[in-house]
# Entry
Amino acid sequence: MELQIEDIKNYFKDIFRQTAPEIIFDNINLNLPLRDQVEIDSLDLYNIVVALQQKTGVYIPDSKLAELTTLSELINYILKQQTKAGVNNELKS
# Structure
């Protein structure tokens, strides 16, 4: 089954509830850098990414993670990695 934007957003909500319950996902602007909006340490961020990889089945290399600073960028990366040619589900900024 191909993931949709809402699927990934729901994964984020679940992951934040489990990994960083003090962060309210609905208060995060998807187009602004996550670290500019919330206080999150490297370990929590790592745990969020690992959980996201497990839920989506999409591996996010550490080298790429440094470039993906917003949740919108992460969502689009996941969609691009799993989307079949000709289908565009990108989250618009």
About this structure: Helices lie at 5-19, 34-37, 42-56, 62-65, 71-82. The CA atoms of residues 3 and 68 lie 19 Å apart.
